[in-house]
Write a structure and sequence with these properties.
- The chain is of the alpha/beta class.
- Helices cover about 50% and strands about 15% of the residues.
- The chain folds into two domains: about 5-150, Rossmann fold; about 170-275, Orthogonal Bundle (N-(1-d-carboxylethyl)-l-norvaline Dehydrogenase, domain 2), CATH 1.10.1040.10.
- The chain has 13 helices and eight strands.
- The chain is globular and about 60 Å long.
């Protein structure tokens, strides 16, 4: 069995850690400056608390599951400690960010998670690319996480994640933006009626997006900027996903709004009331 250090057990990371512990692996995590909610998640997943340096010294594999905005800095912190095992970045970053992190480690695997936290089989897939992909795949064999081998090239797994999230989250940002604009001009109900007349079902879709994405918007802004960087590097221009990032930034304060379903009205109102990006 393998000793893995997980950075960090958020909603997604805890499910990754649980899949590993259920496969018999030892999973360490660094509890310093983490919330009680995170500590409870880690305990429920069977993870073992550790100090940062100790966790790296014991680990054969380090898995990073963090908000995309801190993925590179977390990788740098691990590299600065001289970690020489397999570093697996599973974050929603552009391929060029994955390549940047890969340069920090002698052994690196690029990963991209699609789907919700992996508590049930058949919901969550993990794309992997890099020379050590098979080793990481073996950690999850038979677990709730289905792996996809995308070959030996660093950046392929990130490109897979970017492509998936560009639509699932980017289209959500666009839909919320359209609803907010229609509301600002006093034509929201007419827009919904027109959508309904054409059988598009977009009012229901808009409400679902507001409820699902509102509380997660705090980390989607950086993800949209990573997607923007990826799209620009492919020669496809800039602007669309930067604007999506700004849309999510305006809703970042809804991070803790998990005690009740958000309404479309309050999410579009918050978009309109938020100060413009500087």
């Amino acid at each position: 069995m393998t000793t893995v250090t997980l950075l960090h057990p958020g909603a997604m990371g805890a499910s990754i850690g649980s899949a590993l512990t259920q496969n018999g692996h030892t999973v360490l995590w660094v509890s310093k400056e983490r919330s009680q909610t995170t500590k409870q998640r880690a305990a429920d997943a069977g993870l073992e608390e550790s100090e940062f340096r100790t966790a790296l010294n014991r680990a054969e594999v380090v898995i990073s599951v963090t908000p995309p905005g801190v993925a590179v800095s977390v990788a740098a912190d691990v590299a600065d400690e001289g970690f020489d095992g397999v570093y697996v970045d599973m974050n929603a970053v552009a391929p060029q960010s994955a390549t940047q992190m890969a340069a920090l480690f002698p052994q690196f695997v690029d990963g991209g998670i699609v789907g919700p936290p992996a508590w049930e089989r058949g919901t969550t897939r993990l794309g992997l690319s890099g020379p050590r992909t098979a080793e990481v795949e073996s950690l999850f064999a038979g677990s709730t996480i289905e792996t996809i081998d995308l070959g030996p090239e660093i950046g392929k797994a990130s490109a897979f994640k970017v492509s998936f999230a560009a639509w699932t989250k980017g289209s959500g940002a666009l839909l919320l933006l359209v609803c907010a604009y229609a509301r600002s001009q006093g034509v929201e109900s007419e827009l919904f009626q027109e959508w309904e007349r054409r059988g598009m079902g977009m009012e229901t879709k808009s409400t679902t997006v507001a409820q699902q994405m509102g509380p997660k918007s705090w980390r989607f802004g950086d993800e949209m900027r990573e997607i923007s960087d990826a799209v620009e590097a492919a020669g496809l221009g800039t602007g669309l996903f930067k604007h999506a990032g700004e849309t999510f930034d305006r809703l970042a304060h809804l991070k803790n709004a998990t005690d009740r379903p958000l309404t479309l009205e309050e999410v579009t109102r918050d978009l309109l009331d938020a100060p413009p990006a500087q």
